[in-house]
Amino acid sequence: MKKITLLFSLLFTFSLFSQQEDAWLFLKDKPNAATFLANPLTMLSQRAIDRRNNQNIDLELSDVPIDENYYNQLKNEGNIVVLGKSKWLNAIHIQGTKTNIEAVFSSLSFINKIKFANKSFNNLANKSIKKANHYNKFKTSQSTFNYGSTSNQIKILKGDYLHAQGLTGEGQMIAVIDAGFPNVDVLPAFQRLRGHQKILGGYDFVERNTNFYSGNNHGTNVLSTIGGYLENEFVGTAPNASFYLFRTENAAVEVPLEETLWVEAAERADSLGVDIINTSLGYSTFDNPNYNYAYSDMDGKTAFITRGAEIAANKGILVVNSAGNSGNDLWKYITAPADAPSVITVGAVDSKGNIASFSSFGPTADGRVKPEILAQGVNAAVISHSNGAIISSNGTSFSSPIMAGLIACLNQHKGFILKSARNQSFKDSHNFNEFLKKAVYESADRFSNPEAQFGYGIPNFELAFNNYVASLSIEENLLEIVKITPNPISTTFKIEGIQSNFKNYTLQIFDLLGKQVFQQKQIFSDDLNISFLENGIYFLRISKGNQYKTIKIIKN
After folding, report:
1. Which H, E and C letters describe 283-346, residue by residue?
2. What is the pLDDT averaged over residues 16-42?
3. Which domain holds residue 510?
């Protein structure tokens, strides 16, 4: 009996150390950073640089590619496989046995730290919560629609008002990151996009090839709600927008690599200069339960994909994400990356504005309102990938792109503002994305009383548009001249341009995750001391009522 027990123990130990594991290796530095930063067009397109400049967003170390020598050294390691990488997080996704991964970590000096996807290796609590099998995550109910099928899902949000203002997404680039786009290259509903060269390109990160018209049909359905068009029958929410199509989700499995591929796609989208990312994906459980996230991980800073999504937003991209369809499950909460602070997370309602029971709940683990807003996700009109027919489908997978299209239409107005702005200081003083999100959230029907499943509720884009335009005008008149000196800040700084009548304004400082780290109710021109803050990037906000100005500051 002892021999049998010993044999079992040895077999278990052998299995444990021979099992293939996923891990992220975080690198120490980027040796050639200065060269890249001095030549930004080697990293980003001119459109991406223009988007940064228009929003007063500086180039950073995170924009620099992963060092090629480091990457090649890892590729040449015989006992591991390199699967992906992220320049934003300076991380390389690898797979191998636990023993071999730790050996690589120990032998290569340029690796700063290692994080296993297997939570048990990181000594983290692993609370496996049962939920619907992920193989059914794209399952939908379908029926045929008649003429005017998209009317309700647009009008319930007053999106028709934006279209009447000539805001149809023209000039906006939207990246759709999803599970595949079969038949988008042949279906009549996408002929308008193809004929006007509105599909700018794409990539299949799962198969590592340029055939992005493949994979699961989920992405085709999602795209149709934004850019689909059949005359007198079907109109997407942003019919004149342009698109990049990226496949990162392998529908047959649920593995940590999909998180890395999503971040790679977001980095590609950023480099191409996209304005909006829509992603109707979410991650909490995996094929290997040791990789599962717990609700406590939905804190906006833990999941790899969440961290990447937050960086995307900080690069000036409006990131829109589905809340998830777990409202009826034991795991009822949003999933990553919907928990990211700067991501616009969208839940689902029916055609009459009633909450969909399947729509995932907030708040985040750290108490933030999620989802923020709602759109139709019950019997939403979409285009079938198989025959091009108009069908109905259920899920926050569709409420998210419906919303993303209208976000793009509202964001189109920013282009008008930038073209007509009188001087560069006007452009530099405006955080347009924050204005836009604020206007949309405040237009929602539950803004004054958000709830766990509703968030702020159903937005009204007519009201949002008028508030957006008004808020830009107010700040231009009162806060345009305000500046911070010095910046970067070592210990103290002054607010220049503040007059005596600004005493009633509030000053707040937020970190990159949106957490308030400083507040002062009365503003004076005396030196303000922030020596207690750690070095890094922060956002300083000066506000009174609906007037505010946000300035990025650097503490060093």
Report:
1. ECCCCCHHHCCCHHHCCCCCCHHHHHHHHHHHCCCEEEEECCCCCCCCCCECCECCCCCCCEEE
2. 90
3. 481-555
